[in-house]
Every structure is written in structure tokens, then in C-alpha cells.
Amino acid sequence: MSESHHTKVLIIGSGAAGYTAAVYAARANLQPILVRGLQPGGQLTITTDVENYPGFADPVQGPWLMEQMYAQAKNVGTAMFDDTIVSVDLSKRPFVAVGDGGVTYTGDTLVIATGASARWLGLAGEQKFMGFGVSACATCDGFFYREKPIAVIGGGNTAVEEALFLTNFASKVTLIHRRDALRAEKIMQDRLFKHPKIDVMWDSVLDDVIGTEQPLGVTAARVRNIKSGEITDLPVDGIFVAIGHDPNTKLFSGQIDLDAEGYILTKAGTTQTNIAGVFAAGDVQDKIYRQAVTAAGTGCMSALEAEHFLANLEARQEAAA
Known about the structure:
Radius of gyration: 22 Å
Helix content: 25-40%
Number of helices: 7
Largest sheet: 7 strands, mixed
């Protein structure tokens, strides 16, 4: 017979949202189970200096911050499992999740905190310098490029928003786009074209990332013009890949309401999904802010809402008895 575990609150995902949900659920004596997934700690584990998470006067390392959240959630009573969920059944309660080794997890409530993954170009240099000059989050890392030249890759709303935001810090921003026209909204394009700090390289793609070994850091973006084939090494200190994010929701497709981009839909002002007892927190349902602190906030909300749901369920059962 396969191994199984039951809990009042089952949490799938281990970024800031999942760990915070676990802390609040454990402190409510709900004895939560958290299944950590393929990337324990989430996107912060590929971030170096974190300056915008409240409570730290000096920058902290993203992996260290996630280790602390893990330890905190565990110390207050969360049962942690290093497993990857491969299937779920949300059609009845308790909800069922099955790990890739066949272990079954059931929960009277479920918190989905599987996050989102930044889209990358798949370049070797991109992976090598990730966190050391290559980033997918201008809000997280723009501050580190004060008075330095940077490049932004992309042509949609995300790329234009990030390019405009980065002008608050950078000496110059070069937007690199593979087409001869942007896909971003017209009003945003107008702002971009009028900005004195922004240049655009049309019909161009990032071919590779150039940098130094000691210290590890970016020195240039190798750019290829797709029409002429010309290669240009553009001197920059940072490269921001802004070609979008993909929410990690394939597991739940067809079982829960998603928007057109695959993000889980939640009721306004809550983390409640269309399924009673199922909650979604963090980047899996937030395509606007995508910050550790907002993920932690919705993680807290999901645990409080799960506690409230369970209390009401218990009261109804007692009244019916």
C-alpha cells in the first residue's frame, strides 16, 4: 500500500507565499503539510542581493532568506516533504495530491503556492551570469545599476515597463527587440520613445552574454541583427530579460478557473478560488506585483482564510449532528 499523509491544510509550493502560509497555519495549530516541489524556495533562490524585503537593514542573499523562511515554518510545526506533485484531484474533499514517487497527500483545505517561472532565452551566458548581471526582475534588481548602462530584452508591455522603470537608476537603457515594432500599448510606447535615456535596437536578438570570471559579472550584451547578421557587443553592466512569466498551473488546468494567461483566478480581496476550500497565493495568481513581500502577504491571507473555512465547516458539522 502506498504511503499517504493527511492534513487540515495542504500547501503545494515553497516560495515566500508557501512558507508564510505554513507559518500562519502551524501557529493556528492546523498542523500543515508543505510539499516543496522542484525548486524549493522559488524564484528568490536565483536572486543574489535582496534589499527590498522588510526587516533587514543590509542586503541579504535570496537563498539565505528562503532558508530562514523554511526553518521558521518547520520550527513552528509544519511537516515538510521534498517531493514534486504530479497530479491533483480537486473534485472532492479532502483534496488529493500525488507525488512523483507515488506518495499521496490529502488535505481538508489546499493552498496552491506554486509560483511562476520567468521565461528565459536559454543562452549559456544567460544561465552563467544569472544573479550576477542577468535578471528577470527590474523592481528587484534595478537599484544595483545606478549610473550604469543596461539592456532590456523584449518588446511587450513587460519590457517597456521595465525599461521605463530602470531609467530611474541606469545611465542608459537599450531596449533590444527582435521585430521592427513593439507589441506594447501605444501610450507606453510613446513614453518610451520620448525618454532621453532609452535607445531601441530593432530587428535584433541577444546572442550571448559577455562578462568577467573574477569577479563574476556582465560587461556586454552580444547582439545580432536578424536581417543583416551583424554582431555588436553592446557595453552594459546588466541585462534584464523581460519576455514574460509563465504561472506554474499546468497541474491544475481543467480543474480550477484560470485566466487567459494561465494564472489562477481568485475572488477580489481574497485568495479564494472558485473551489471552496482551495486557495491560491503568490505569483501563481499575481501577475502584477510579483514581489516576495506581496507573495508573503497573500500566503498569510490564504492560511487565515483556510482557518476560517475549517472553523465554519466544523460548526456546520456540529450543527448537523
